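Hey, I was hoping to borrow your eyes for a little while. I've been staring at a protein lately and its backbone has me curious. You're getting the sequence in one-letter code plus the fold written as tokens. Would you mind checking whether the tokens look sensible for this chain? Here's the protein in full, and shout if anything looks odd to you:
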Amino acid sequence: MKPLNADASKVRRRSRTASEKNEKKKKIVETALNLLFEEQGGELPSVDRIAKSSSVAKGTIYLYFKTKEEIFLYALDVYFKNWFEEICHELRDTGVREAKDFAVCFSRPVLENEQFLKLASMKRMVFQRGLSEDLIRDHKNMIIDGVKSVAGEISKISGRDMVKCEKLIMRCYAVVLGCHYTSYPPRGDLTILSAEERSVLVLNLEEDIHYILKCLWTNFLQENS
């Protein structure tokens, strides 16, 4: 039922405005990420550069984000939230027990989104400056909440206590991030390495992540079983 005397045209205008704002925010973030990974060589692009590339006025960008670091923190927040939600959904729907299924469940969302892993590996640079203590605290609390939500699902499946489940998740995250880092060495390293040397030093990202995650899951289930 509509509220009495509601002005439907105003409601529609507000809705469109909210949608337009979300689209503009999305455009700013996507442009910033593209610049970061394709043109900047790993350096955070300036707000000026983002404004020119996105065709969004610099002043408009500052309505959404106070600093360039806030843009990338926002992207990290979205990626992490989606990752936690996808893992929880998969765990609830399938009741994962087999090691290979756990490895896929945990890694697929990030393997399918290479920008997430690239940005996560640059997290220290994003957090160096340009962020308020409140934003950093909110980000860390979001991570903790996400870890606890995934740990809760794993605890239901495995019967292990929350502390052990939380530790498993953080170990798995470290594996995913570490494997990604080792799989993509600096460009200069690739030019001086022979094919044989690369086969020794550079991991196969998906294959090696799955192998290590399966080992962690198997060991986790065997502990105190």
Remarks:
- Residues 73 and 181 are 20 Å apart (CA to CA).
- The chain has two domains: 7-65, 68-222.
